[in-house]
Design a protein that fits this description.
seven-stranded mixed beta sheet; five-stranded mixed beta sheet; 31% helix; 18% strand
Length: 268
């Protein structure tokens, strides 16, 4: 049976993604949704982009654009854009492209097929009858097809507000220090700090509610979403009080949220 598998922020962690895919045993009929931020922080950004390009031919790959990917694409526009990217993980990314006999990094080392992939195949959102997948977040009272960039790429997963469509959101972007997904009803964040020494790269089997994880060191584990609280207790991790989700219909949006959406639509 075909599965929908969502993978959180990879951040240059090629070893983790290889281990994770071996655990998943991805099949041609599966839909693999990667939630963005493919480069930076980890050591193997180039290998991750190569893997994405190759994986397109092995299954139905859906590649969501993350804020780091957006910065990388915009780095070609000007020196200012380039410096902004370098300050946000671009240095680590370029090192993965730099020949070993050269210390100085250069954006010119990124091959054409990688730019082509980033320009042609990254999308802001993926929608199914029951779920939607984004990098960061969505504005609750705005149609999924009309979401502002400030939410799609930058908005943190802090106090999630249910989208009026009733669909479940699966996102990344906000790294979870516990190493476990943050589940808040119809909002699930699966960025679990793959690049960190104690972090994990997470994959959610959407229909079966199973989480698969792999680390850069080659460790793996899997568990059901319903078992996360038991794992937290077993590891004695101190976590904040769980978010209290809010459901808001578009016509009932508070003045505060309406103003925020208005600012977001203007890119402020």
């Amino acid at each position: 049976m075909a599965r929908i598998l969502a993978i959180g922020d990879i951040h240059g962690c090629y070893s983790a993604v290889q281990t994770l895919c071996a655990l998943l045993d991805v099949r041609p009929e599966d839909t693999l949704v990667t939630l963005g931020d493919y480069t930076g922080k980890g050591p193997d950004s180039r290998k991750v982009i190569d893997w994405l390009i190759q994986t397109q031919h092995r299954c139905n790959l859906v590649t969501i654009c993350g804020n780091n990917d957006l910065l990388m694409k915009n780095a070609r526009k000007s020196k200012k854009h380039l410096q902004r990217w370098l300050n946000a993980g671009g240095q680590e990314t370029l090192r993965s492209y730099t020949p070993r006999n050269r210390k100085k990094v250069s954006i010119d080392d990124i091959p054409h097929d990688h730019w082509q992939f980033l320009d042609r195949f990254l999308q802001p959102i993926f929608i199914t009858p029951s779920h939607f997948f984004v990098h960061a977040n969505v504005a609750p009272g705005v149609a999924l097809e009309e979401q502002p960039d400030s939410y799609l790429f930058w908005k943190k997963f802090k106090r999630p507000v249910y989208h009026y469509s009733g669909k479940t959101m699966v996102c990344g972007h906000t790294s979870q220090k516990t190493g476990l997904p943050d589940v808040c009803g119809r909002a699930i964040c699966i960025d679990t700090k793959a690049f960190h020494e104690k972090g994990w790269l997470s994959c959610l089997d959407v229909e079966n509610n199973i989480v698969y994880q792999a680390s850069q060191r080659g460790k793996t584990r899997q568990f059901r979403l319903s078992g996360i609280e038991d794992l937290l207790e077993a590891s004695q991790v101190n976590v904040p009080v769980q978010h209290k989700p809010i459901k808001i219909e578009p016509q009932l949006l508070s003045a505060e949220i309406s103003q925020e959406l208005h600012r977001s639509s203007k890119g402020l």
